[in-house]
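Customer escalation, tier 2.

The customer says the design service returned an amino acid string that "doesn't look like it belongs to this structure." They asked us to rerun it and document both sides in this ticket. The original structure tokens are below, unchanged.
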């Protein structure tokens, strides 16, 4: 999608780092596995140009995924509210250049107060963006060590293409290993794995067409991990399968200094997205909040300026959360997404 984003008008508030003589910062248990665990996985370090995908038919569900980027990308930006344009006839565009790279969304599984949910990363892939994104779901290593691959098969898909005449995204599997659900995989896990593929290829191809899996070109639909795909699997409601808060920037292991812009998507009470910077002991050294562009019905973009100029150089964790007005007294608790950062 080529539509450029509009400037975000989210309000932000920040509490700067306490001095040595100020009252102590609040202390929290560090986000699991984050304090010392770093990764060298190839995360997308290029900045992203984002757009918003339209829902299918009258479905109001949307996801803020980027149009595939070509070569170099522009400065980091948040999604606009515009809709993608579609053609009534199949595209006649040439086959992707194997050496061309694109930025695509990839959905991995992470833990949440409501059980496993999907978390999004942006990654760089070569050649066909749809196939590259699908293969990242199947065999890619998440840049964030809190995430894990959703698919139980470590392999590659044969092809991914949008059939505009049929109104389907067709994903071809190379063999029948993908058809049945493994013995150690629950039905719920299988459905979430299929949704990881659905959200990923829809984002990469900028289409909300349902996803149908086939075993050969032009062949009938085949199941994926025991999930029937005949007629296509639509993307589930965001609030049912996605984490209710996600950090787009900073990325895992990002190097920051001075003031940086944090951004992502969330569905949080009254659109308030609290955030914190925690040191290696889990103590909160800087905190604030962002105001997202909406809440309740889907995930909306949020953005905030984070001032780390008063922090000593070293490793910290940036954490964005959903707001929990009950303080944990009601419901499952707040959703979190965190990224290890290096302050220089």
């Amino acid at each position: 999608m080529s539509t450029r984003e509009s400037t975000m008008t989210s309000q932000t508030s920040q509490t700067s780092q306490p001095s040595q003589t100020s009252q102590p910062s609040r202390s929290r248990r560090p986000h699991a596995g984050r304090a010392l665990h770093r990764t060298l996985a190839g995360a997308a370090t290029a900045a992203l140009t984002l757009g918003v995908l339209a829902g299918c038919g009258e479905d109001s569900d949307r996801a803020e995924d980027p149009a595939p980027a070509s070569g170099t990308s522009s400065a980091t930006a948040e999604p606009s509210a515009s809709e993608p344009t579609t053609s009534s006839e199949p595209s006649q565009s040439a086959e992707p250049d194997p050496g061309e790279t694109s930025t695509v969304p990839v959905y991995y599984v992470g833990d949440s107060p409501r059980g496993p949910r999907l978390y999004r990363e942006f990654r760089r892939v070569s050649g066909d963006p749809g196939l590259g994104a699908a293969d990242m779901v199947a065999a890619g290593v998440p840049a964030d060590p809190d995430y894990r691959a959703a698919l139980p098969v470590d392999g590659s898909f044969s092809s991914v293409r949008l059939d505009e005449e049929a109104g389907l995204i067709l994903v071809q599997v190379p063999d029948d290993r993908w058809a049945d659900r493994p013995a150690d995989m629950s039905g719920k896990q299988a459905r979430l794995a299929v949704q990881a593929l659905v959200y990923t290829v829809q984002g990469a191809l900028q289409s909300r067409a349902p996803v149908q899996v086939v075993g050969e070109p032009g062949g009938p639909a085949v199941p994926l991990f025991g999930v029937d795909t005949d007629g296509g699997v639509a993307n589930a409601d965001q609030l049912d399968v996605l984490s209710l808060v996600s950090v787009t920037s900073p990325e895992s292991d990002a190097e920051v200094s001075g003031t940086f812009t944090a951004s992502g998507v969330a569905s949080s009470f009254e659109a308030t997205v609290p955030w914190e910077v925690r040191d290696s002991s889990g103590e909160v050294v800087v905190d604030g909040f962002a105001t997202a562009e909406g809440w309740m019905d889907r995930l909306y973009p949020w953005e905030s300026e984070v001032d780390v100029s008063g922090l000593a150089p070293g490793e910290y964790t940036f954490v964005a959360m959903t707001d929990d007005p009950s303080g944990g007294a009601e419901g499952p608790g707040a959703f979190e997404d965190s990224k290890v950062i290096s302050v220089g």
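Tier 2 assessment: The sequence is consistent with the input. The CA atoms of residues 299 and 307 lie 25 Å apart. The radius of gyration is 20 Å. Sent an explanation to the customer and offered a walkthrough call.
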